[in-house]
Structure formats: C-alpha cells, structure tokens
Amino acid sequence: MEAGSRRSQSWKVACALLALVAAAGVLGGATPAGAHSGDVIDSLWASSPPTVDGTMTPGEWAGAMAVDLGAIPGNFLASSLLVMNDATYLWVAYDAVGDRTASVNDSASFAFDTGHDAVGTNGAEDQFIVSGIFAGGSAHLVYSGGGYIVEDSPFDPGLPDHAGLAGARGFGPSDLQSADHRIYEFQIPLVLVGANPGDTLGLFGGSQFVPGVLDYEAGFAYSTWPTYVTSPIPLPNYGDLVLAALSAPIGVSLSPSATSANGVPGDTIWYNLTARNTGTSVNDTFDVAVTSAWTAALWNATGAVPLADTDGDTVPDTGNLTPGGRATFIVKVSIPPSATGCDVAMITATSSWNLSISDSSTLNTCVGPAMFAPPHSDVGLDDNGNGKFDRLRVNVSVNVGQSGVYFIIGDFFNANHTLLIMSIGTGFAPPAGSFVVPLDFDGRTIFTSGQDGPYPVELTLYDSSFRAIDSDTYLTGPYNATDFEPPRALFRPPHTDVGVDTDVPPNGFYDQLLLNVSLFVGVAGTYSIDTTVYDSIGFPVAFSSNSFTLPTGNVHAVITYPGDRFYTAPADGPYTIDMYLRDSFGATLDFDIHITGPYARTDFDPPPIVFAPPHSDRGVDTDVPPDGLFDWLVVSANVNVTEAGAYSVRGDLLGPGGFPYIASASVSGFLGLGTHTLDLRFPGPAIRRAQVSGYFMVYLTAGPATGNV
C-alpha cells in the first residue's frame, strides 16, 4: 500500500487557478466575453422564506432552485445547492446528504462577482463562509487590493447594509435525505451585494478559504460549482446567478443584467445573452435593440446567422416564447482598430404585447491591457538528442493592448484533469502587439508522474500587480509519459516488506524486517536511500541510511531493520516508512511512503538482553572507619538475558531533571540465561562537585559487549 500524499490535491488559498474552458471551437476567431463560464442558476421567487437555523423542515426549501452538485464530474461529496430570493433577501443552502458525520471543520461557502464584470472591486466581490475554522463560526470576506479580507466574523447584521445577514450549520434530515446529515443555510441581504430582483451576479460555489461544501472527516471530500476545481478560481470563471423577479401577467428578463470584457483593437467580443418570458398569461415575442458607440450586431445563438425578425415589424426579436420560455442570442461588439478606453452597449428586450414592459443588459467592452489569443500550440524538445523530450513547450499566444509587464502561470494537469503535475510561470514586458510566450514544462517531472497525455494546461494571465486579467485552457497533443526524459532515479512503487526469522533452528519470531524498495534508474550510479520507520501511533521506531550502486532500468534495493526495534516499539504496526532517494552528492531526487503489513510487536524476537525493572540504588561509605559520607552511589540494574553471551551495561548519571551530566559507569561480562543484577558504581566526589541534590536520573543502556543497543 502506497501513501498518496505526493499525488493528491489540496484547497490552496494562493492563486492556483482553474481556467475557463476555451470556446474557440464554437466561436471561431472571436473573443468571448470575460464573464462568465456559461453555467447559469436561475433563482426562484421565495413566496415562503425559509428560517435560517441549520435545519430543513419538510417543504421549507421546496420552492428553491436545486442544483445537484454530485452530478458535476470530479465532485466528491453528494450534495445539492439550493437558491431562492425575494425583493429583500437571497437564501442559499447546501443540503450535504453525503456528509453523515458532524465535524467542527465541516464547511460551506460561496462567492459573488457582484458587478458581474470579472474585475475585482475593493469592498465588493463578497464571499460568505460557515465553518468551524473561524472562531465565530462564520465569515464575510470582501475584495481588497488584489486579495480578500475578512469584513466581519462572525456575520454582523449590525454593520451598514448587513441587516438580516445570517448563516447556520446543522445536522438532521431534509426532503432529499431522511438520514441525518450536514445542512447549511444562508440569508444574504440583496443590498449588501448591490443587487435587485432580476439582476445577474457572478457565482462561485467556493471561496478563498474552503470549497463550496466540505466534509472534513471524509478525507477532505468536497463539491464546488460551476465545475469541480482544486482551488479558488478567478472571477472570469464564475458561473451566473440570475435573481428571480416577482411574476406578472406580462414580463421579460434579460440576463446577464450586466457584463464586461476586455479586448485589443481589432477584436470582436461575443456576448451570450438570454431573454426569458417571465409573464404568466401570454406567449410573447420580445424585440431586441442595441445602442453602442462601437459597432454592435445581434446574431442568433450559433453566431453564424443574424438575429431574425420573426414577427415582421422590422426589429430583430427572440421569436415566440411561451411563459417561462427562453431564447439565447449573441451580441458581437467590434473594437475599432484605433480604439482606446471603453464602450457601453445597451441591449433592450421589449414585449410585443405591452411596449412599456422591457428589460435591459449593459455590455461594457474595453481595450484591455492584454489577453490570450488562441490557438496555442505545443512541441516536445529533445535537448540532448537521445530521443526523449527534456521539455514540453507550450507556445502561448497573447494579444497586448498596452505595453507593460505581464506574467503567465501555467498549471499542468493529467489527462482527466484530476491531478496537478506541476506549475510554472514566466514574465515578459512587450510593447503593444501579438506575441507568442513559451512555457517549458519539465520532461522528467512528466515522466515521474507516470501520466499519459493529452495534458490540459490551465493558463492565467496577470498584470504587473499580479492581478488576474485573463484565463484560458489549452489541451496538448497525445504524449505518453515514457516519451519524456527519465530522471536519474526515482521510486517506482509498489514496494514490499517481509519479516525474516534468522534463528537456527527457527523460533517463530522475526529477527529482521526486510523492505524491498522498487526503483527506476535512468543513469547508473551510486544512490542512497534514507528511511524513518514509524509505528501506528507515529512513534519513530528505526532509521536507516544505505548506499547502493545501481544499474539502469527497473531495480530493487533491500533495506534491513533489526527486529528487536519493533519488539520494543510503543505500538504495533502497520508501520509507515518515509523514504528519501538521494544522489551521490546528497541531493534529494524523490520521496515516497510505504505502509507495511499489519505486524504486531510480539511477532518479533525480543532483544537478547533487556532491562527488568524495578532497579534499586544505595549509597556506600567505604572509609575505614566510616565518616558518614558516601564514597559511591551504587545503582543495581536488573536485566533479563534470553541468549547467553558477553554483554555490557552502562549508566549515565544525570542531575535532577536530566541536567547536569555527572558521571558514567559500566560493567561487562558473560551472562547466562535468566535474570541478573549488575552494580554500576558512580564516584561520590563527582556527585559532590556537581553541587546538585535530589532525585538523580540514570540513563541505562545494555547490549553486546562490542556495542550498546
């Protein structure tokens, strides 16, 4: 059994970011809008608001929009995200049906892009968390200076615009699961996030500190929205939350209510909008109009055909929509070749039944500092001509609108996007224009991972303040891990272990534990393996450092541990063995963990000599006549011998509490089978010179006469 710690993911507060899946295959050479991922949750109107107390009474959340997070590939925790709102509050709940244990660090969170513009604004981009990691059980975060700060923890409804802010965590049944499980409920004042019914907010099921919903005790199992991610994501990758509006006989909702994107002069930005018939009484056709200083055109959902006029009034429209029906269309905004600054396009959808009823969406298009400009490309580079790639180079295409300093971070994943293999970054300072920036991923690291391609590479572009300004995902060609340069040497699990009885004749107890280490060696030479063995309660049992001269290929190295170390350990196995592989210069090449079989301490041979307390001591006055002062402190140490032979027992005399060191004494000789008492004599003058009084400590060691054990 091999530990998986070196190949696992964790939720990182730092900016390891999941990038937006590229839409180039659908949109051709156009640039999609920066916000958001394309995933949408339509909140439902709350006719009967829930009580935020950590419990779900029957039917309490029946009127909410429910999203099955367990259906999202990669999510580990069976759970649902529930959303509803009225004109004052937004209610969010996580029904974590898969979390059947209550841990103090169980958590739930979500985050908003409040301006729906993919841009961090100080004091906005609110995040809400209920978790035991905060002393008050909850925390409200806001964006500040490129990161996030805690504005209130616990939630403080007494702050401005915070009235009614609440969150609760509980454990019990729900409509989705009768067995007790974790439940989280939130109440968010709409004024706090600057929203109104019908508005669109960017939404991430997660936060800077914890994932969307987390079962801490189940191996850190969690789920996130809109996709499964291994860390916080940048604002452009959020999904959309469309807040419900109170139904009327005739009505329309246009979402997102506002969004923005950056481009470079000459680009065409594509915005996806959705019109929904929110009326309850009639089918309706909604005329769509656009006003913009830059060229803006309406297209159907494919982006290939202009939006049609289906009712013959010379105005493009959505087509006939039944109550609750929706239509998606695209707005293309062209950035003029010499443009600077920003353009605001206003899109309006108007009812054909009642021209006074309409809804609008604001599209804010700016000449941005820089952005990715797919397609990207990749190539394997063989630096030494041996037929193996030393580097996998990803050529990243970037359009720069404003000269300056920029950074690109590339996160390199395995083929199914569940394992982060490595991350690298580079900086560059270009003038305005189009550029290709190379990212070189280490071939040895790819070989060591054992993961075949194609490899998703998540790309994030940062400005000089290290603020994320764009993201993309690139999929490399179909490489095999063995196409790349192997390292000098690495562990190649699984490893094996076996107990060995060396007694003649065998006595049924192990004298040694052998560890058979499996390695791959790319360059023949001398290597060392350093190990530490821990028992089942984490106490270090044995250590080793061995050198091996190894040929190339798949090889094995055997490490031997004395059995008596395990016999005298505080706890039984299985034993955990940490292993470090080093080259001849001592540089660490690899690390691995091996878990042994379930040995018991009594499976091993005891040491041939062991102490058999209680021991005793006495002071001896050898003066003639006696002067009443001890010339010797004699410690009588009891030992039990199971194999006759020459042994030595040593004692180090220490002051009370282990300090100072005073003197040492030892006795050696042949000892037969059975119990023996050996006197260790410590000189009285040395004790007097130490100038300490009290209960002295004696550290005892016993072993063969040639050395202590």
CATH architecture of the largest domain: Sandwich
Q: What is the count of DSSP helices, taking H or I runs of 4+ residues?
A: 4
Please compute the radius of gyration using only Cα atoms: 35 Å
Fraction of residues in β-strands: over 45%
List keywords for this structure.
709 residues, mainly beta, Immunoglobulin-like, 5 domains, 9-stranded mixed beta sheet, 6-stranded mixed beta sheet, 4 helices, elongated, disordered N terminus
What does this entry show, briefly?
The chain is mainly β. The chain contains four helices and 48 strands. The protein has five domains: 9-242, Immunoglobulin-like; 252-367, Immunoglobulin-like (Sandwich), CATH 2.60.40; 370-483, Immunoglobulin-like (Sandwich); 489-603, Coagulation Factor XIII, Chain A, domain 1 (Distorted Sandwich), CATH 2.70.50.60; 609-704, Immunoglobulin-like (Sandwich).
Description:
3% of the residues lie in helices and 46% in strands. By secondary structure, it is mainly beta. It folds into 5 domains: 9-242, Immunoglobulin-like (Sandwich), CATH 2.60.40.1190; 252-367, Immunoglobulin-like, CATH 2.60.40.2310; 370-483, Immunoglobulin-like; 489-603, Distorted Sandwich (Coagulation Factor XIII, Chain A, domain 1), CATH 2.70.50; 609-704, Immunoglobulin-like (Sandwich), CATH 2.60.40.10. Strands 2, 7, 8, 9, 10, 13, 14, 15 and 16 form a 9-stranded mixed beta sheet that branches. Strands 3, 4, 5, 6, 11 and 12 form a 6-stranded mixed beta sheet that branches. The chain is elongated, with a radius of gyration of 35 Å. The two termini are 31 Å apart. The relative contact order is 0.09. Mean pLDDT is 90; it is low at 1-35.
